[in-house]
Amino acid sequence: MAGLAVPRGGILTVTGLLYTIPSLALLPILPVLLGTPIFSEINLILALTIYAIALMVRSVSDGLGSVDPSVRMSATAMGYGAGRRFWAVDFPLAGPVILAGLRVTAVSTIALATVGALIGVTNLGYLFTNGSQRRIIPEVLAGIVAVVIIALVIDGLLILAGRALMPWSRAQRRRARRGALPLEVAVA
Amino acid sequence: MNLFAEAIAWIFSGNPGAGLAPIPVALGQHLWFTFVSVLVAALIAVPLGWLIGHTGKGRDIAVAISGAARAIPSFGLLILLFLLLGVLRTTEAAIITFVLLAIPSILAGAYTGFEAIDRKVIDAAQAMGMTQWQILWRVEVPLGLSLLVAGLRSATLQVVATVTIAAFINLGGLGQYILAGIPLRRFEIVLGGALLVAALALVLDGVFALLQRASVPAGIRAAQSHHSVPQRSASARTAAVGAS
Questions:
Q1: Sequence-distant (≥ 6) Cβ neighbours of residue A70 within 8 angstroms
Q2: Separation in Å, CA A142 to CA A10, B77, B98
Q3: In this complex, which of B67, B108, B179 lies closest to A181 when CB atoms are compared?
Q4: CB-CB contact of B83 with A150 (8 Å)
């Protein structure tokens, strides 16, 4: 995708616009558009998937775009075909940026899922709605702490997976992302 | 699909029914909360972000705090502050939540705007004998403006989304139609409210897209079109600057 300017712009515009729609608005619109049951958790899963796609499309595109063109040309000069070059050169080098995007996506999705409690999906967000109605501060606080712990554990696992799968990433990451906006800022 | 027609009819009926506030009033509340919160957040985050961008110090702390802030569910934070401050201070609880939510994006927009500037430009300004203040106001601020606007855009959209959720603590705004319609099983009201919120977010996004384009200094715009640099998003542009 990095090399194709027109689809890149088009796809990123569409995913960016979808990301712009507030979650509490998207949640009731989806069942009407798709015919899913109104209080089903399918709608929450679909909405979170749409937001995650918006973030990931951007980060994969940025990752592939951040590959040094001279590296790509060297690979071509060494006789790599387009497919082999993509899997053996572009994709591994884009890996750290994609992983950074995946971490942002995972953490923000975990936090956002709590909004589902407002449309009748029972998850940790229930501690917020129930705690609010019954005015139990520790219940709400427990919900926040639980969400943050899950997010941090998943984030930690992603970091470990990245280190195991991409031992080359640490040297490269800082340089590549410096001066780039955080993902949520860039995607909207 | 029939529900869409009913929802549109509800929007234009002029009377939301079910004891709910008229749509213009709810829209006004929604915009007011968004505007005040983003303004307060900008007053805090812009000077701080410029300081980080100008001195190059404190960036790692800002990145770490912004990263950790992502994990906090804003819905939970809103309710926690609402319970802590009490029913009489609902507005304050909401605005504090929105401000905290908006700060990371604006901060990031402010300092990445400075970071994305070619160091040679700063060196040239210094060589011309500009003072630090002159470099800040006449070089860094104008050149960093478009990324700052990108940060404000993202912050505004996040706040608009969270103001919707804030209807849960009786704050008003457009979210009240979604949340009030669900227990009443008046799904035309729920969908109508959702469509209004989505439309508001898309309109604000469009306004900021125009502002972002207008905030690129004329000299830079001329240079970009001259070298036929593809006009991509701010992030792709800066990522390219950072990698080169």
A1: none
A2: 42, 11, 21
A3: B108
A4: no
| A19-57 confidence digits (pLDDT tens) | 999 999 999 999 988 988 888 899 999 999 999 999 999
Shortest CA distance to B153 belongs to which of B41, B25, B30? Answer: B41
Count of C-beta atoms within a 10 Å radius of residue A117? 23
Closest CA to A32 of B18, B180, B6, B130: B6
- Residue B77's closest chain A neighbor by CA? A144
Q: Look at chain A and count its residues.
A: 188
Alpha carbon of B179 to those of A171, B55, B162, B187: distances in Å? 49, 46, 13, 10
Q: Residue written as tokens 């109508």?
A: B192
- Return the axis-axis angle of helices A41-65 and A5-20, rounded to nearest 10°: 140
B12, two tokens? 């234009």
Interatomic CA distance for residues B110 and B149, integer angstroms: 9
Residue type present at position B72:
I
CA torsion angle for B21, B22, B25, B27 (degrees, to 10)?
A: 100
Region at B117 (left for phi over 0; alpha for psi -120 to 50; beta for the rest): beta
- Prediction ipTM score: 0.85
Q: In angstroms, how far is CA A118 from the centroid of its own chain?
A: 22
The owner of tokens 């409690």 is A117
User: Between chains, do B3 and A132 touch, taking CB under 8 Å as contact?
Assistant: no
Which tokens sit at B15? 């009377």
Chain A touched by B72 (CB under 8 Å): yes
Q: What is the token pair recorded at B48?
A: 């701080």
Instruction: Show Cβ contacts of residue A3 under 8 Å, excluding neighbours closer than 6 positions.
Output: none
Per-residue pLDDT tens digits for A94-135: 999 999 999 999 999 999 999 999 988 999 999 999 999 999
Asked if B147 contacts B221 with a C-beta cutoff of 8 angstroms, the reply is no
Interface with chain A: mutation pick from B70, B153, B244, highest number of A CBs within 10 Å:
B70
Q: Which two tokens stand for residue B54?
A: 């100008």
Spatial distance between the Cα atoms of B152 and B210, rounded to a whole number of angstroms:
13
DSSP state of B128: T
